[in-house]
Amino acid sequence: MERSEILKQFEPANENMLNILHALQNNNSQNYLSEEDIKIAANYLNTTYSHIYGVVTYYTMFSLKPRGKYIIRVCNSPVCNMENSTKVIEEIKRFLSIEVGETTDDKRFTLELSECLGRCGKAPGMMINEDVIGNLDNVDFKSIFENYN
Amino acid sequence: MIQEKRITLKNLGKINPESIDDYINVGGYKAFEKTVGRHHIEIIDEMVKSSLRGRGGAGFSAGLKEKFTSEACLRCEQKYLICNADEGEPGTFKDRIIMENDPHLMLEGMLIAAYAIGASKAYIYIRGEYYKSIDRINKAISAAKEKGIIGKNVFGSAFSVDVEVKLGAGSYLCGEELTLLESLEGKRGYPRIKPPYPAEYGLYGKPTLINNVETLATIPTIIEKGSDWYTSLGTENSPGTKIFTISGDVNKPGYYETEMGITLRELIYELAGGIKDGKAFYAAILGGAAGTFVNESVLDTPMGFDTLKEKGAVLGSGAIMVMSEGRSLFDMTNSILEFFKHESCGKCVPCRIGMPQLLHIMENLKNNKIGRIEALDLLLYESEFMAKSSLCPLGQSPILPIKSLKQYFENEF
Ligand SMILES: Cc1cc2nc3c(=O)[nH]c(=O)nc-3n(C[C@H](O)[C@H](O)[C@H](O)COP(=O)(O)O)c2cc1C
Ligand code: SF4
Ligand code: FES
What we know:
The complex is a heterodimer of chains A (about 150) and B (about 425). Chain A is an alpha+beta fold. Chain A has helices spanning about 5, 15-25, 35-45, 50-60, 80, 85-95, 140-145, and strands at about 70-75, 110-115, 125-130, 130-135. Chain A folds into 2 domains: about 5-60; about 70-145, Glutaredoxin (3-Layer(aba) Sandwich). Chain A is built from 7 helices and 4 strands, in the order H-H-H-H-E-H-H-E-E-E-H. Chain B is globular and about 70 Å long. Chain B contains 16 helices and 9 strands. Chains A and B meet through helix 2, helix 4 and helix 5 of A and strand 3, strand 5, strand 9 and helix 13 of B. Bound molecules: flavin mononucleotide, iron/sulfur cluster and FE2/S2 (inorganic) cluster.
C-alpha cells in the first residue's frame, strides 16, 4: 500500500504515533522502519526526524534494520526461563543457523528474544508473527517452521 | 472443595466474544444504561462503598481514584479515562483472558467509569503483542458504536463518549501509569516524576483516570448488584474476587478467579491440581518479577493485599509462579534481575547502574568469588539503595524479591 494511504487512516495526533509506526512497519515488506518511513511519519505528525527516531529505538517491537518475513519472538522471562527457554533458543539458533537478532539468508525468519508474552501457563512459549506457540519443551521445530513460507 | 467464583470471567465460554448480541442477551450494557440515568456522584459513592481495590498491582481504592479525578476541576474542557491493558508483568495473563473472552465487559466498565468522572474520551493502551485481544477489542468497539452504546447521547442521555485503541510496542515500563501517559503522547517511555498524580495532571496535562483491565471489568457487576453484595465477598480489607494466574510446577497451570482470602495451598493443590510429578512444594513467587518469594509457611495465609503484606509478601498482579523441590532460587533470581535490567529505561543513574551491579553480584556468587551470605547482603544493600534513590517504581522493584529471599530463604539461596 502507498504510505499516504496508510497515514490517511489516522488523525495526525501524537497519541497515534505508535499506531502509525506499527502500520508503516507492517506495510514494509522487510518488516522494519526505513529512513523514508520515519521521514514521512515525522512530516505527517509535524515533528522532527530525530524525535521519531528516538521513539523507534526505544520500543523493542520496532526495528531500524530490515528483518525477515516472520519475526520469531522467544520468551525468555522467568517462567519460560525456568522451563528451559535457553534450550529452545539454542535449538532454534541451530535449526535456522542464525544468532539472536539475525535474519536467515532466505529472508524468511528473524530471531528475537522477548520478555513475558502472557502465555506463562504454556511455558516455554514463543510467537511467530501473530501466532502463539506454547509448550515448546519437546517439539519438532522443523514441523513448526515448515508452516511459514 | 474450593470453587471458583467468577465475576470478571462470568461470561467466559458462555457467550461468543465477538457477538455484542450475545453479551446483551446475558444482561450486558444494562449497568451502563442504568448508570447514565443516575447522578455521577451516586455512581462514585457506590464504587467507594464497594472498596474495590485496583487490580493492576498497587491496590489503591478504585472509587477514591474516581472521586479525585471527578473533583479535579469543575469546568475543565477535557478529562480522560485510560484502560491499562499493557499487561507485561511476568507470570501474569489475566487481562488477556478477559479481553479475549469478554471484551464488552471491560468496555462496559470503561463506559461507566468514564461517565462517573465526566470523561468524553477513553483510550485502551494495549500491548502490541496481544494481537487477538486487540482484534477482539476493536470488534467490540465497532459493534458498540453501531448500536449507539458508544457515541453521542448514549441511551438518550446527555453523555457522549468516544473510545479508541492505542498500541504499545514492547516495553514493560510503559505499563507504569505515568510512563504510559508519555508513551500515549507519542514519546519515548520515560517516567514522569510524581506528584502530580494523573487525577490532577494526566494525559496532555488533563485530569485522567487510569485503571487496569480487571478493575474495570469488575465495575458493571458492582453497579448491577450493588456494593453490599460485592463487599460480602472476599475479606474485610480485600473484598471481591481476584484472578490468579498460576504457572510453573503445577499440574494445571492457568487462570483461576476466586474470592479473595483463598489460601495459596487451596489455589495450588485444589485448583491447579497440585505440584507436578508428585514433588513437594518449594517456593512461590507472588506478584510477578516485581513480586516476592515465599516458602511453605505462607501456604495457609489468606490471599489479600494486607494479609500478605503482614508476611512481607505482595499480592501484586495476582501472578503465582510455583517452584517444586529441586528448583534453583539462584537461577530464578538471576532471571528476574535480567528481566529488570532489560526493562530499565536508563533515565536515572541508580537504576541504570544498579541493575547491572546486581547481576554482577550474582555472577561473583556463581564463580565462588563471594559466599552466599555475603552475596545476599550485597544484593540487599544495593537494592535498598536503588529503592531509595530511583526515579520510578521499576528501580524500586528489585528490593521486593531480594528482601523476601533474605526473609524466607536465607539459608538456601
Ligand atoms: C513497571 C510497572 C509496570 C506496570 N505495568 C502495569 C500493567 O501492565 N498493567 C496495569 O494495569 N498496571 C501496571 N502497573 C501499575 C500501574 O502503574 C497502575 O498502578 C495501574 O494501572 C492502576 O490501575 P488500578 O488502580 O486499576 O490497579 C505497572 C506498574 C509498574 C511500576
Ligand atoms: S528507575 Fe529505572 S526504569 Fe525508572 S526512570 Fe530510573 S532508569 Fe528508568
Ligand atoms: S514468562 Fe514466558 S510467557 Fe510469561
